[in-house]
Amino acid sequence: MPILEGISPIIDVDQVLKAQGADPEIIRKRKPQLVKIAQNALEQGYPYLDFKVLFREIDVLSLKHERLKLEDQHELKGKLIAEHLGPAAKVILILCTIGSRLEDYSLNTIKSDPVTGLALEGVGSAAVEALANAACNYFEEKAHEENLGSTIPLSPGMIGWSVEEGQPQIFKLLDTNEIGVSLTTSYLMLPRKTLSMVIGIGADIKAGGKTCDYCTMNETCAYQHQYTSSH
Amino acid sequence: MSQELFKEMAQSILDGDDEVSAELAQKALDGGIDPLAAITDGFMPGVNEVGDNFACGDAFLPELVMAGEAMKAAIAVLEPAMMASGVSRQVLGKVVLATVEGDIHEIGKTLVGTMLTSSGFKVYDMGVDVPTADLIAKAEEVGADIIGLSALLTTTMIKQKEVIDEVAKRGLKVMVMVGGAPVTKEWVQRIEADGYSEDAIGAVSVAKELMGL
């Protein structure tokens, strides 16, 4: 199963602060020491990041009653899947992880220095998000080169595709051992800083909306304004 | 002198400066100020203000964590002095705290523990991925007033109900409060939890309410 090589996104301190739920502009004025802590965490944590992207392309055969029939008798199902992937000619299943080394480091740090530990967690969250964005951009650009469109990335947990429904479907179609990712009985991906998603590619697809529109937290999330891209 | 020092104490918490808060705690002891008064009249107003700011979106999570650390540093200086003089801080209640079985998210739960401890609760933090049976056993062992349960996944929230059902089945006189990103008021009503909070600061208020304070 293919692994996307060579993606090592650069992360800046603002992304680390945002990943901790902080507004960088306000924090710079109010608590500059937190910016320094985030910067140090980034420098300390970055060497612990093991960026890996596993993916699989599968042709779409048909859509019937919220079931997307794929080649080799595979399928994806769910309301969200039907809503977005019906016109797709193929789907790309993607699993992005930063590995477990940073997670171990941050959990150890948090016991003795919670502020730095939280910043390291922020590094991990920012890193996996940046990795997922980079992976999506790669596939979107590849599709555009072939004059094809791509959907927004769909992830289990979004409205219309619960974690319980979506996660086993994705894991069934990917050999996740290849990048050291597993799914617990409660559908938690390990290492924790891992994102799974599927995008549709096809001539009749026009990207619309953004992932936040389909997030279960969209009514209460205070950070939506920070996500300006389509992901 | 006390009032001025108390203001500085509160400010050290607002600044999240654990070195200054520890220095001020020592200054209070050296100046013969009652350590309990230093906590309740000096540092606690700072904790409350940071909490209020966080609750209304005027403070961010790392600032809350910094404030908690500053409070811990002050208490670490003051507590031995209180114990030596036979005075102890009033324990508002005993809380057994954990992230439920199947869930390994730590930060939110730990922050709730820090805030409850800072506010005067005795917290027994059992960590993450804690089986229901272990939680119940700990609650019985320490005579807990409250069990606090965190779950960050829709798939593990069900364990909160499992604990509540087990408490009811055994007829234990312990209240259960729940929290975590996917937890909603509807879910809380459905599982008949005694309390619910969206964040660590709210958890302190809820715990106090449950204790009738």
From TrEMBL, chain A:
Task: Tell me one GO molecular function of this protein.
Answer: methionine synthase activity
Q: Which InterPro entries match?
A: VitB12-dep_Met_synth_activ_sf
Question: What's the protein name?
Answer: AdoMet activation domain-containing protein
Organism classification: Bacteria, Bacillati, Chloroflexota, Anaerolineae, Anaerolineales
TrEMBL record, chain B:
Q: Where is the B12-binding N-terminal domain?
A: 1-90
Task: Please list the GO terms describing molecular function.
Answer: cobalamin binding; metal ion binding; methionine synthase activity
GO terms classed as biological process: homocysteine metabolic process; tetrahydrofolate metabolic process
Q: Which CDD domains match?
A: corrinoid_protein_B12-BD
**Which segments of the protein form a coiled coil according to its record?**
none
State the InterPro entries in the record: Cbl-bd_cap, Cobalamin-bd, Cobalamin-bd_sf, Met_Synthase/Corrinoid, Meth_synthase_dom
Pfam families recorded: B12-binding (PF02310), B12-binding_2 (PF02607)
List keywords of the entry alphabetically.
Answer: Cobalt, Metal-binding
Q: Which SUPFAM superfamilies match?
A: Cobalamin (vitamin B12)-binding domain, Methionine synthase domain
GO-annotated cellular components: cytosol
Q: Where is the B12-binding domain?
A: 92-213
The family assignment reads:
Belongs to the methylamine corrinoid protein family.
Q: What is this protein called?
A: Corrinoid protein
- What organism, scientifically named, is this protein from? Candidatus Desulfolinea nitratireducens
